[in-house]
Amino acid sequence: MIPASELPVNSDGSVFHLHLRPEQLADRIILVGDQDRVTTVAKFFDTKEAEVQSREFHTITGTYKGKRVSVMASGMGQPAIGIYSYELFAFYDVKNIIRIGSCGSIDPELHVRDIIIAQGACTNGNYAAQYNLPGTFCPIASYELLEKAVAATRAAGVKFKVGNIF
Prior knowledge:
3 helices, two-stranded parallel ribbon, globular, single chain, alpha/beta, 7 strands, five-stranded mixed sheet
């Protein structure tokens, strides 16, 4: 994390694009694309302590089963999630980001509303090229987090598939 004295701070004390003060954000983040999903996810929170809306950036922080968590909308596309994830890890003390959302499939065994737990996310976009990352860089999930997601989904008796996404 960048020292507080070096953060790009807005006039209201919030940090750069996200317009959040560090105390308004948990170290566990659920990231959704569509800002309308923020309130849908936050309905499961036990408590709600902060809500910030700035352009398409909508954030709600609260608790779920005693754990402090934030749900945020990142918008769509690689540039948006690139800004979000960079600022979350660099300017805030974020430990985990879990991305949830929808996707399509070419697998004939998968159907609408099936659960996919992504190990990695490939792309044919050019976003990573600006960082001199050749080829198709595939970010992968933390194994510990992936394992917990699989265990929780299995315990809930929900059909799911684990694999890479594109």
